[in-house]
Design brief:
3-stranded antiparallel beta sheet; alpha+beta; Alpha-Beta Plaits; globular; about 90 residues
């Protein structure tokens, strides 16, 4: 899960991760409102959310590629475990 500054950046990173085979799928959710603490202050921003589906062995390379393409100094890159799901997917 990655927050990005806008829809254009989300699509660009998502397409590249799928093209590089670091992610099997990318979902882009535009127009999220983020509230966070940055450099000691509370900040708000309109962002987009990028959800990437990948595997644990690919995580480090995926993270490195996202950091290289991302506009933020410290991007949010979070991996969540899948505890259940449709096996065929």
């Amino acid at each position: 899960m990655v927050t990005v500054k806008n829809l254009k950046e989300a699509v660009r990173i998502g397409e590249e991760m799928v093209y590089m085979k670091l992610a099997a799928c990318a979902n882009v959710i535009p127009g999220i409102q983020s509230i966070y603490r940055w450099k000691g202050k509370v900040a708000k921003a309109q962002e987009a959310l990028l959800i990437l589906k990948s595997t644990k062995p690919r995580y480090r390379e995926l993270e490195k590629a996202i950091k290289a393409m991302h506009a933020y100094e410290v991007p949010e890159v979070i991996a969540l475990p899948v505890t259940e799901g449709l096996e065929a997917y």
